[in-house]
Amino acid sequence: MKNATDMSQRHDSGFTVEVGAQSGQKLSACYQCGNCTAGCPASFVYDRQVNQIMRGVQLGMKDEVLDSRAIWLCLSCSTCSLRCPNNIDVAAVMETLRHMARKENRVAVGNVEKFWFSFLNTVRAFGRSWEIGTMALYMMRSLRLFTDLDLAPEALKKQKLGFKPHVVAQGGASSVTRIFKRYKERAEREGVRP
């Protein structure tokens, strides 16, 4: 068993520098006030709280941070960023950590990634999200075939779900196509699955 107090075996200062550079945030400015955690609406499902993730990054605890479920369950609502007294964009740090984890094939919550791909596939095809299409793709990818089907009748009655996708006008569609093309080129350069 590792000695939990021996940080020399766990500290990766390069990780701290890399997260700071990729997120554009000054991580040393975090003094663990806990405002990010106190305001987080998803903290009840996290394995590590937001301030613990931030501290883990500061301490270079790469494995503990990148293997955390919290970075995948983050809602990206930016409440943490708005509450930070030192103006750290904590949501940007969480997003950076997700990208780093994905690049290293460390997806702690696979269904989140499956939902992302389902959402992005409908945006790629139609220029914007198509809710029914997104959910159908997600249910097939995750093998959760009856997920939330009980909600569909009420959503359909309130006209919250369209059977047909809304396609973006020609000019907008070409802009979306260019975005996906640039992403695919970058993903290939970086060796990440697009």
Give the amount of beta strand, in percent: under 5%
The averaged pLDDT comes out at 87
User: What is the number of helical segments per DSSP (H or I, 4+ residues)?
Assistant: 11
Main sheet properties: none
Architecture overview:
The radius of gyration is 19 Å and the shape is globular. Helix content is 56%, strand content 0%. It folds into two domains: 7-103, Alpha-helical ferredoxin (Fumarate Reductase Iron-sulfur Protein, Chain B, domain 2); 110-190, no CATH class. It has helices at residues 13-23, 35-39, 50-58, 62-66, 70-73, 79-83, 90-103, 110-126, 131-142, 152-157, 170-190. The chain has 194 residues and is mainly alpha-helical.
Would you kindly provide a brief summary of this structure?
This protein is globular. Helix 1 (13-23) packs across helix 7 and helix 8 (110-126) packs antiparallel against helix 9 (131-142). It has 2 domains: 7-103, Orthogonal Bundle (Fumarate Reductase Iron-sulfur Protein, Chain B, domain 2), CATH 1.10.1060; 110-190, no CATH class.
For this entry, give a set of tags.
mainly alpha, Fumarate Reductase Iron-sulfur Protein, Chain B, domain 2, 2 domains, 11 helices, globular
Strand and helix map with partners:
Layout: H1 13-23, H2 35-39, H3 50-58, H4 62-66, H5 70-73, H6 79-83, H7 90-103, H8 110-126, H9 131-142, H10 152-157, H11 170-190
Helix pairs in contact: 1-7, 8-9
